[in-house]
Amino acid sequence: MSNLFRKAALAAVVAGGASPVLAADLAERPIVIEEPPVIQQPYEEVGDFGGWYIRGDLDYHKSKIRGAEYITYGAEPCPVGCGDPDVWTGVGGTKSFDTTELKSAFSIGAGVGYQLNRHFRTDLTLDYWFRTKFKGSTSDDGNSGCGSPTIPCQSVDRSKMSALVLLANAYVDLGTWNGLTPYVGAGIGGAHIRWEDLENDANVGFATHKGSKSWRFAYALMAGASYCLTDKLMLDAGYRFSRIEGGRMFERNGAGPGFDKGFNTHEVRAGLRYNFGGGANHCYQPETVAYELPPEPIYTK
């Protein structure tokens, strides 16, 4: 019995001496607190993404005229007693230009638009095409009354063309990466084409045809990208294809009137867009919010 008592007492002494050591170990153990997670607010949590913007653009374009034609008229019969056997009665009709060419030119434009959401926006743009030079040529075998059956009529024709292009456009923004947002779009509207007087330098004489002006139907397809310069200012660059329908080109003076068959235009464009209001464009950076976690509790005896 005494043996058993002595063993129990020894065990109690050992346990009592180990307890302060274990407590000291627990108190001195380093506490590691992990960094709080960083959570980025998605665009949808920001609120209204839409906003108004204005834009200005500079353009360099090359237009291809899809052809031109003019009306001819038969020569008047020789009056009785004129005594000229070479005078004849020609047959009138519609003749096409042999060649047509429009030089490259610049344009400037402005517009106002609205960003409906993160991926869709619309705007109304007005562009002024500076005057571009036109050069064409015509030829005739004489059977339409231009020259004579034995003297073909050949001419070089020169004029200038300018335009106002008004388009309502819609764009799809494809996403934003490091401030760069590619997009595609389309527009529909009208173009006011103004032709200056056509100078007709022919081997049978010189003539001037008064130029015409008219509104025509127009549409455009475009693709490009915008880049954030500041939180409100964006650089926009891209390509636009536009098509303008045909209309009257010049008035009658002997031959005429004349008509162009419209234009296909390839444009390289660059400009700036200024967005109004906070969070109204892709330059907005979602706010980074760090949530602080409370430290783990330390339990002591």
Summarize the structure in words.
InterPro entries: Beta-barrel_OMP, OMP/PagP_B-barrel. This is Opacity protein-like surface antigen. Keywords: Signal. With 301 residues, the protein is mainly beta. It has a single domain, classed as Porin (Beta Barrel), CATH 2.40.160.20. The strands form 3 sheets. An 8-stranded antiparallel β-barrel has the order 2-6-7-8-9-12-13-16. It has a 4-stranded antiparallel beta sheet with strand order 4-3-15-14, with no helix packed on it. A two-stranded antiparallel sheet has the order 1-17. The longest helix has 27 residues.
Q: Structural class of the secondary structure composition?
A: mainly beta
As residue ranges, the low-confidence spans are 43-47, 76-90
CA-based gyration radius? 40 Å
Q: Please describe the biggest sheet, giving its number of strands, its sense, and whether it closes into a barrel.
A: 8 strands, antiparallel, barrel
N to C succession of SSEs:
HEEEEEEEEEEEEEEEEE
The share of residues in extended strands comes to over 45%
Kindly report the CATH topology: Porin
CATH level-1 class: Mainly Beta
Number of helices: 1
Q: How many domains would you count in the coordinates?
A: 1
The amount of helix comes to under 10%
Strand order of the largest sheet: 2-6-7-8-9-12-13-16
Mean pLDDT: 79
**Care to count the β-strands?**
17
